Amino acid sequence: MPKKTKKEKILAMYHKKLRMLENQQVVTPPVKLKTPNSTVQEPIVKKEKIELPESKYFFSDLKKSLILIVLIIGVEVVLYIAKLVK
To answer: Which residue ranges traverse the bilayer (predicted)?
Structure first.
């Protein structure tokens, strides 16, 4: 069985106290649990566009690949012409 998180423990404690108060049938305001702000934090959702690393480097890699292909084809053409001249 998985362990309880801190948030689940706090909720269970609150639920237990609530049940005890219902059994006693005492009308009192709900009990606020004192929790440090650092223990229970809501996740912060940033509304900025997240750019994947693959798309970030795609065009630079494509440009490098095209330059290499052009250079290799150029060397082949030069070697072909050099053979014909001999």
So the answer is: 66-85
pLDDT at residue 64 above 60?
Answer: yes
Distance of CA 56 to the CA centre of its chain: 17
pTM of the model: 0.38
Quick check: is 44 in a domain? Answer: no
Please say whether the beta carbons of 28 and 21 come within 8 A.
yes
Token reading at 3: 């362990």
pLDDT at 18: 87
Query: What's the pLDDT score for residue 25?
Result: 64
d(CA 51, CA 54): 9
- Let me know: does 50 contact 36? Beta carbons within 8 Å: no
Structural domain boundaries enclosing 5: 1-39
Are the C-beta atoms of 6 and 40 separated by less than 8 Å?
Answer: yes
